[in-house]
Automatic annotation (TrEMBL):
Listed name of the protein: Cuticle protein, putative
Domain of life: Eukaryota
Keywords: Cuticle, Signal
Residue ranges of the TM segments: none
Residues in the signal sequence: 1-34
InterPro entries from the UniProt entry: Chitinase_insertion_sf (IPR029070), Cuticle_Struct_Prot (IPR050468), Insect_cuticle (IPR000618)
Coiled-coil zones: none
GO CC, any one term: chitin-based extracellular matrix
Source species of the chain: Ixodes scapularis (Black-legged tick)
Pfam families: Chitin_bind_4
GO molecular function: structural constituent of chitin-based larval cuticle
């Protein structure tokens, strides 16, 4: 005679079928979740934009850019402050990469080509003032004097 606790167990064949059906459902969900929806990327459209703005302090800021159907960009941006200090950056971005050149009259700039971005400066080179060293008296610590005073005289 079998023990009564066996009556609540599934048969081995039923357990295998139940496990197989669970694995099959999980695989079906994984397959459906792995489907990638690819949206078509629209072709680049030609465009052009720009602005020219002067603020309340007299600073002029400009920008303009154009793009073509091959995704090439050509543009510039810059500013001129109220004192006439100006900087303009002209750039091209195409199949050969991003290339920029800077035109400026900012004080302290020189014509150079750092990092393959030429800078053309029209500023006047200013000589730095000579360094004058201030002379200050050097403090000296007073020597420590150890001394004894004579004992007071006793008056009777």
């Amino acid at each position: 005679m079998r023990s009564p606790h066996y009556q609540f167990h599934f048969s081995p064949r039923g357990t295998a079928f139940t496990m197989f059906s669970k694995v099959l459902v999980c695989c079906l969900f994984a397959y459906v979740a792995s489907q990638v929806v690819v949206e078509p990327v629209p072709a680049p459209q030609p465009y052009s934009f720009g602005y020219d703005n002067v603020d309340e302090f007299g600073t002029r800021m400009t920008r303009q850019e154009t793009g073509d159907v091959n995704n090439n960009k050509i543009g510039s941006y810059g500013y001129v402050d109220a004192h006439g200090v100006a900087r303009t950056v002209n750039y091209v971005a195409d199949a050969f990469g991003f290339r920029a050149s800077v035109q400026t009259n900012e004080p302290g700039t020189k014509t150079s080509e750092p990092a393959d971005a030429p800078t053309y400066s029209s500023s006047v080179e200013v000589q730095a003032p000579a360094v004058v060293k201030a002379v200050h008296p050097t403090p000296v610590a007073a020597p420590f004097v150890y001394g004894r005073h004579a004992a007071p005289v006793v008056y009777a």
